[in-house]
Amino acid sequence: MNTLNADLHCHSVVSDGTLTPEELAARAKAQGVQLWALTDHDEIGGQARAAAAAAACGLDYLTGVEISVTFLHQTVHIVGLGFDASNLALTQGLQQTRGGRGQRAQEMAADLARIGIKGAFEGALKYAGNPELISRTHFARYLVETGVCKDTYEVFRKYLVEGKPGFVEHRWARLKDAVHWITQAGGMAIIAHPARYKFSANEEFALFTEFKGHGGQGVEVVTGSHSAAEYQSYAATAREFGLAASRGSDFHSPTESRTELGTLPALPDGLTPVWALLAERIQHPTH
Ligand code: AMP
Ligand code: MN
Ligand code: MN
Ligand code: MN
After folding, report:
1. Looking at the chain, which runs of residues are DSSP E strands?
2. Domain-by-domain residue ranges, the chain?
3. What is the largest CA-CA distance in the chain?
């Protein structure tokens, strides 16, 4: 069960990826993925296309999303899997979460203009396949296009992050709300890439404890954002908190992403994979 090639985290043009849901489904299939989920940021507008494309190429599918949350002054991402994508409370919660992105992007562009980088709002918007979902990734592509940085990794070291030009503090959804939107729609809430956050040990303990208290059930253990040592340390966290373990590349683009779809190692032993608990929510191709 732990060796199933499940890739339960990636992004399409509906958020900040560069491939369409159909292109991702075909790529996942070609990479040997057996169970796939598209998890766009704060948006489930690509779910019907992703599920249809998965069925057409013979891939098992789980609905997916990655919700932006503010917890203890940091942005935390909560992945939702296996929910009913027509659920009203989920749809409305996501719409509300996306709502502040336009204004935030204007403020980011104004901050970049202060150091002489002009036209960043329009430049970023050009890369946004979904104008409701303008994100830092789209700004990063504009800064690469204009030669300010050599790649998006350099952008996220020098710009758009706390303390650097183009960073704008933003209030995302509450942890409790994001977990509830997912669970009341029949899905499972999962803490995305926990090693990426800059929490103290006490703060991280609070995150996991509150998340569980609200009904969260999973944590990403093997992700494109973790090192091999981090697979092991978050495997221990999963066991300690009694959380199921997830696996996902966080693939965004063939040219920008370091981790290809379906190429991560298997989950460490002794963990319950999220897909074991979501068996009834998996959409199987019918033929
Ligand atoms: P946003 O939701 O607008 O804050 O954009 C966040 C996105 O930026 C993430 O989902 C990643 O795709 C991308 N990103 C890439 N590298 C980093 C980084 N070092 N820190 C934050 N975001 C990053
Ligand atoms: Mn992203
Ligand atoms: Mn994320
Ligand atoms: Mn992601």
Report:
1. 6-7, 35-36, 60-61, 64-71, 74-81, 173-174, 188-191, 218-223, 244-248
2. 6-97+171-281, 101-158
3. 57
Computed over its alpha carbons, how large is the radius of gyration of the chain?
A: 18
Question: What pLDDT is recorded for position 287?
Answer: 65
The rounded distance, in Å, linking the Cα atoms of 231 and 51 is: 29
**Cα–Cα dist 187/62, whole Å:** 10
The predicted model gives 40-61 an average pLDDT of 98
The CATH classification number of 101-158 equals 1.10.150.650
∠ CA 81-83-84, nearest 5°, is 150
Q: CATH number of the domain at 6-97+171-281, please?
A: 3.20.20.140
Neighbouring-strand partners of residue 222: 247
**Ligand 1 atom nearest 68 alpha carbon:** 2
Ligand 1 cavity residues, CB under 6 Å: 16, 41, 68, 135-137, 156, 161, 252
CA distance 182 to 257: 27
For ligand 2, the distance from its centroid to the CA atom of residue 100, given in whole angstroms, is 17
Q: What is the average pLDDT score of the chain?
A: 97
User: Would the pLDDT of 2 be above 80?
Assistant: no
